[in-house]
Amino acid sequence: MMTLYSGITDPFSHRCRIVLYEKGMDFEIIDVDLMNKPEDLAVMNPYNRTPVLVERDLVLYESNIINEYIDERFPHPQLMPADPVMRARARLFLFRFEQELFNHVQTLESGTQKAQEKARLYVRENLIQIAPIFVKQKYMLGEEFSMLDVAIAPLLWRLDQYQIQLNKQSAPLLKYAERLFSRQAFIDSMTASEKAMRR
Ligand SMILES: N[C@@H](CCC(=O)N[C@@H](CS)C(=O)NCC(=O)O)C(=O)O
């Protein structure tokens, strides 16, 4: 059985929880308090961060790497595209999400006021840019839910918490976000602390 060491408010762990619930197989989640990390976290992950996935003698860290492993190990429903060209494009998108959005999470959560303000503006601009995608399609890659939707969902859930307000032109993105939040796997994936982030 897979065991996920998961931060209770950590957006990266949230991504892995979503995939585990989308797959509907057996797994165990160990809640990690990042203010009081268990000693073995640093043994499993040299960066001493969550999430970490353990399956027998396999120990993985980095949310996107964990998620691709789960997707390959339990192929239904498949979350990475089957076609190599589309899969390569999906990986490029995942990389861009990290660069333009998720690399700012730490600042948004614990940076100085000035750094937070700058990060908010940067993330906001990048989200506004992708909003038009959802005028024509339901999900990031088209009509099917995929790993890209998994990757971005925890950030969209935290917009209020990070005090990021989008403009009117971003309405299609907010509608898309509601579509993600209404999925059963997304609802099941949340910790009590995450549920309390949005009313
Ligand atoms: N790139 C990593 C980021 C993981 C990460 O930054 N985890 C944070 C939680 S928000 C963490 O464990 N921080 C604790 C620390 O750095 O002390 C991933 O995708 O898994």
Describe this structure in words.
It is a single chain. Helix 1 links the parallel strand 1 and strand 2. The N and C termini lie far apart (34 Å). This protein is globular. It is α+β, with helices and mostly antiparallel strands. It is 53% helix and 10% strand. The longest helix is centred in the middle third of the chain and has 18 residues. The model has no long low-confidence stretch (mean pLDDT 97). The protein binds glutathione. The site of glutathione has 11 residues, from loops.
Could you provide a short overview of the structure?
By secondary structure, the chain is an alpha+beta fold. The chain has helices spanning 11-23, 40-44, 63-73, 84-100, 105-110, 113-130, 133-136, 147-157, 171-181, 184-189, 192-195, and strands spanning 2-7, 27-32, 52-55, 58-61. It folds into two domains: 2-77 and 190-195, Glutaredoxin; 84-183, Glutathione S-transferase Yfyf (Class Pi), Chain A, domain 2.
Sheet with the most strands, sense and barrel status: 4 strands, mixed
Rounded average pLDDT: 97
Q: Stretches where pLDDT falls below 50 for ≥5 residues? A: none
Number of domains: 2
**What is the strand tally?**
4
Strand content: 5-15%
Global Rg: 16 Å
Largest beta sheet: what is the strand line-up? 2-1-3-4
